[in-house]
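Quick start: read one record
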Amino acid sequence: MNNKPNSLDSDVAEFAGVNQEAIVQLATFAHISQGFTLAFAEVNFALDVPLLVHALEGHRRCKDIQFVVIQIDDPELEFVLSAIKEKLQEVELDAAKKLVLIVVGLERSIGYVNHGKTPEVIANLNFARDLFPRQLPYPVVFVLPDYALTRLARGAHDLWAWTSASVQIRSGRQRIEQVHEQVLVPGRQFGSDDKPVKQERIDLLQRLLTQYQPTLGKPDAELAPLRLNILDELADAYFSLSDVQTARHFYTEALSLAQSIGKEWTQANALFGLGRTSAFFGNHAEALTKYEQALELYKSVDDSLGEANTLQVIGDGLQFLKQSQEALNRYDEALQLYKTTKDRLGEANTLKA
C-alpha cells in the first residue's frame, strides 16, 4: 500500500490552513447573498483558484450552492457583463442549487500597467453598473491579482461601492517557490507572444512581487533579496517592451532597495538601467552621470563585462554630445575589456560604433 501523501491533497491542506478566515468570509457571502451581490477576492496565482473553489464547495455553508467559474481572459475585452452572460449560456445549471459565479481572468483586459488612462473595460464597468442587478441576478465573486484589483477599485469606483465582501487569498509557501522557480528560469518560453519579453512573464513577475512585501512574520532581511531580484527583472522586462516610464519606476525602486541592503552589483544594474531610460528620453548628460556611477560599482565588484557594456554606452552618450575624442577613448577601453572577456559580439558592436 502506498502511503505517500498526494501532492494535490498537500496543496489543498496548506491552502486551507493559511486562508481559513478568508474562506469562511467568502462562504458566508455565498450563503447569505441574494440576487446580484458583489465580492472581490485577491488571488495572485491562477493555480490557487481551483483550490479556492474546492475549499468553498466543501464548506458546510455551501452544500446547496453551485459555484460556476466564468473565465473571461480576452485582452481586448470591453464589456464584462456581456461576456459573463455569454459564458453562462454554456453552463448546465443545477435547478436545485443556488448559483454563485466566480469570475476569473479579467486582469488580462485590465492590463499590467497604468499608462495614464483608465482601461476601457474598467470605464465600461462604471457605465454598466446599474445593468448588473437586472441582467445578472446572482452573487458574483471577481477573482483578481493584487495589481489588477487595485486598478479596478480606483477606476470602477461606482461598481466597487457595491462591494459586500473583499478578501485576500494567501498563497502557500510551496506555490510561491514553484512560481519563483518557474518565472526566473533563464530562456523559459511563455506562450506564443513574440514581444521581446512575454507579457505572461511580466504578469507572473507582478504577481510574485506582491508575495515579497515585508510582513511582521518575515523580516526584511529575508524578503529583500527576493524582492530585489523581481524588481530588477521587471525593470528590464518593461524596458524591453519600450514601456520606459514603468521601467524607470522599477529601476528606481530596485536601486533604493539595493542601496539599503548593500547589493553593489544590483545597484550598478539599476543605475545602468536608469541611464538607458534617461538616454531614451534624450537626457544624455543625465544618462552619462548614471553610467559613470554604474561603472564605478562594476569595477568594485570586478564585473569586467558590466564595465565593458557601460563604457560602450558612455561612448554612445558622448557621441550624442559631440565629444567624439572622448567617445573614442571610451570605446577603446570597452573593446579591450570585450577582448579580455572573449565577448565577440561586444567587440563587433564596439568596432562598429
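Residues 1-5, 186-197 have pLDDT under 50 and may be disordered.
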